[in-house]
Structures are given as structure tokens and as C-alpha cells.
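User: Predict structure, ligand YRO.
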Amino acid sequence: MSLATTFLGVNFANPFMNAAGVMCQTENELTSLAQSSSGSLITKSCTSAFREGNPEPRYSKAPLGSINSMGLPNLGFDFYFNYAKNTFPSVNVSNKPIFFSISGLSLEESTSMAQSLCPLATEGQVILELNLSCPNVPGKPQIGYDMEDMDRYLNAVSSVYSMPFGVKMPPYFDFAHFDSAAAVLNKYDKVAFVTCINSVGNGLVIDIDSEQTLIRPKAGFGGIGGSYVLPTALANVNAFYTRCPGKKIIGCGGVTSGSEAFMHILAGASLVQIGTQLQEEGVGVFDRILSELRTLMEKKGYTTLSDFHGKLKTL
Ligand SMILES: CC(C)(C)CCc1c(C(=O)O)[nH]c(=O)[nH]c1=O
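Assistant: Predicted complex:
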């Protein structure tokens, strides 16, 4: 029985990692992930400069998951670049790969960061995940929801970034959108993987006792994660798995146990990110979910991930 897998030519001891944004903003958090049982890790989406982010409370647990409007708090590109280049190798006791998330506030900022990151990627030290939920100009929807802007973004990054990279996609809910988003991604061979999904945007969770919102920013509106989003996450994983045959899929959304991880892999995910459950449970979640997935595979007679990867059956 092995949970090992190869992704973009790199060996992973297991398919699990954190979702960008969760437990990956500071050096201590990143090192805690580096020394956890995860197969890999990813940094908090960064901007060029340090960002304070939104006023707290900006994250809250909710009955079936979580809500957040963090506002992109991060220590700035240089911090994560130096962490990946200099600090990570010294704390990476299990030689696990590290992903690097970028979310510039403009096409120019993201392109500039990608260009600066490229040397580290060519040395095989990082894998870029470009966050397409990044903000657009006010009045326009996030990049992932504007196909022309997404095309321009990928064209700009591809022209300065010489290595394969991936994109973090917002959730889609309409077959016309699965089709049009996949059509844009399939124009770029350098887009080697697609991470589905980011949080389901602008939900509203209400506390009935206080009659208040749970978070302060945006009048309580925020991205929804956790069990609430599992069916949408699985649909997006499978929709892009079938529409982008030349690309790998990373699944993210609603993974709280080995069962949901199994579903993501069955739907087409090669790696699986854990967000809300990691935030709530801590890094022990990786040990628990690894054990649960092993037990489930044993019960089903599977010995490797490829025995069931992408093999979802329809009726
Ligand atoms: C939502 C943005 C602030 C534009 C990007 C960062 C981000 C955040 C965040 O930092 O608020 N939260 C998420 O659930 N997903 C994200 O991609």
C-alpha cells in the first residue's frame, strides 16, 4: 500500500497539502507544515508588498465549514521567496516539494512576481500556483470570472515564466462556464495543473443569538469553505479533469476525512488540499486523513492512488 505519487515529474510521499491561505502566512506556520505529515505545502498568496489585510474577526468557523474575508494579509513576495530559497531547505526534513502562491493586485504585479520567482522554479525549488481569484479593477468580477481578463493574465505570465505552473480557480456553477474557462486554460500548455476550488465567494453566515454576522469585513460577506462546498468542489475537479486532458488537477474543498479525499481523487484530483479542516484541527489532520484513506483503500482492495484515480463511474 502506497500513497506516493508523481506530479509534474516531482515525487510526493502522499497527495496531501494545505490550501493556500491556511496556516502558511508566517515562518512558524510554514515550518510547522514542513515538519508535518503533509506530502507538500503551499505559501499564502502573496503581493509584492507586505499587507495587513482586513480588520478582525475576518475568519470564522461555521456550522458546516468556515467563512473568511482575510483581505490577502501576507508578508510580501520577498519574504516567501527567501523562505522557499533559504529557510525551507533547512527545515524540510522529509524533502517535500513546496508550492508558491501569487495573487497580485494587478496583472502587472502578478507578472512581475512570476518573473522574479522563475529562477527558483527553474532550480526545481518551487512550483507556482497563480491565484485567479485575485482582485480585478473595482466593478469587475475576480479574474477567474472574466474570461478575457483570465486570458490576458495567463498570456502575460506565460510570456515571462518559462516553467510549467498552475492556476487556483474559483468555483463555477454552469456548464457554459466550465467550457469557457477550460477553453482559456487549454490555450496555455505551460498551465500544467488546475487547482479547483477556491472558496465559494461572498457567502453570509449569521449568528442567530446575537443576530450578527460572524466576520467584520464586507458587512459579513466572505468566502465559504468546508463541508458546505464539497459537492461544488468535486464537480469542478471532475469538470476540469474531463475538459483539460493534458493537465493535472489538484482538488480543494470540503475534505474533512479520508472519504472526501477519496472522492476528490476518484473525480480526478492528483493532489488534495485541505483548508478549513486544517485550520480547525491543526497539522494532525494530515496523520488522521492519511490513516483513514489507507483504511478505505485497504477495504476496497486498492494499493495505489492510480488504482482509482479519475475512475468515477456514472450511472
Ligand atoms: C479574495 C482575495 C483577497 C482577492 C484573494 C485571497 C483569498 C482570500 C483572502 O485573503 O481573503 N481568501 C480566500 O478564501 N481565498 C483567496 O483567494
